[in-house]
Design a protein that fits this description.
The protein has 317 residues and is of the alpha/beta class. It has four helices and 17 strands. The strands form four sheets. The protein has a seven-stranded mixed beta sheet with strand order 12-13-11-14-15-16-17, sandwiched between helices. Strands 5-1-10-7-8 form a five-stranded mixed beta sheet, with no helix packed on it.
């Protein structure tokens, strides 16, 4: 299934139920009287944050989502039942915009009642007065509210791995998260969780697919990362040039989207090759005063502690 980080849907709250026009005679009141009950409230539209969700693909199948209308009132002053609210689950980091792309809300942890259902109409019992003993009137429920919204997902993460295809990003992410399962390079972003210190809060790592014309759009998942890690293969013809090209990709994205990826703290992670090749290529990076680490299949050559210490310092945990 493809990764979906942008959907446009129409949301409709429930309409309020109609009030009832009803009269009833009983032994205690042989002359009778109005006893029409009020209508029930319409259902709300609620956006609920579910951390287990990773994207918005479950919202692609439908364009219209509607809550249940309130039920009409009845005799004996019975109030109509409330309409069921519609709860739409969204992943953490979802941003809600209106149809004109104006920001409405960023969904982090709490549920948000986006649209309230209409109030139920009053039944004729409500309108009984000394001057009006047999009202033949009742209110219709308040109308539903309809809005078109844009939901866009931007993961909130600590580290974002950026590199070209074959640079070793996924291998590093798996090693860092200590996952033994085989996960192959993907055309979509992935989210990993690691614990740098026992009993500490987990650090979230985004592994972006290898940068190309078709995957450039996923750079939006780096916008809310605290640290960018450029992953460059030592087997490239010129690793320093590859790093510069990655920076250019981010700069181009910033200019088009008005983001600030190139202003974020960053590291460079060199992968593959051997120690002699690393020592040969590292000089250019050190001249530019770039924080540099070296990763091979057995892990970081310097060990993970210096890397994690530097990360924790940057993200201010």
């Amino acid at each position: 299934m493809s990764f979906v980080d942008h959907v446009q849907v129409t949301l409709v709250s429930g309409r309020g139920g109609k009030g009832a026009v009803h009269f009833q005679k009983t032994r205690r009141s042989p002359r009778g009287g109005p006893d029409g009950g009020n209508g029930g409230k319409g259902g709300d539209i609620i956006l609920s944050v579910q951390p287990a969700l990773k994207d918005l693909s479950h919202l692609v199948r439908k364009r219209l989502y509607k809550a249940e209308d309130g039920h009409p009132g009845a005799g004996r002053k019975k109030k109509g039942a409330k309409g069921k609210s519609l709860v739409l689950s969204v992943p953490k980091g979802t941003i809600c915009y209106d149809s004109k792309a104006r920001l409405l809300k960023e969904l982090k942890t709490k549920d948000w009642c986006f649209l309230k259902g209409g109030k139920g109409g009053k039944g004729n019992a409500f309108f009984k007065r000394a001057s009006l003993q047999a009202p033949q009137i009742a209110q219709s429920g308040k109308p539903s509210v309809k809005k078109e919204v844009i939901l866009q997902l931007k993961w909130v993460s600590d580290i974002c791995l950026v590199g070209f295809r074959g640079s070793g990003k996924t291998s590093f992410a798996l090693d860092l998260s200590q996952q033994e399962s085989k996960i192959y390079p993907s055309s979509y972003p992935r989210l990993f969780s690691i614990k740098p210190i026992p009993f500490s809060a987990p650090i979230l790592v985004v592994d972006l697919p290898g940068l190309s014309s078709s995957t450039r759009r996923f750079l939006k998942q780096a916008e809310r990362a605290k640290v960018i890690t450029f992953v460059v293969s030592l087997m490239d013809k010129d690793p320093f040039c590859s790093y510069q090209n990655l920076r250019k990709e981010l700069l181009s994205y910033d200019q088009k989207q008005g983001s600030y990826l190139t202003q974020k703290p960053f590291f460079v992670l060199l992968t593959g090759g051997d120690t002699s090749l690393y020592k040969e290529k590292e000089k250019l990076f050190h001249k530019s005063k770039i924080s540099l680490f070296y990763f091979v299949k057995k892990g970081l050559v310097s060990g993970y502690k210096p890397f994690m210490d530097e990360v924790l310092k940057k993200i201010e945990i």
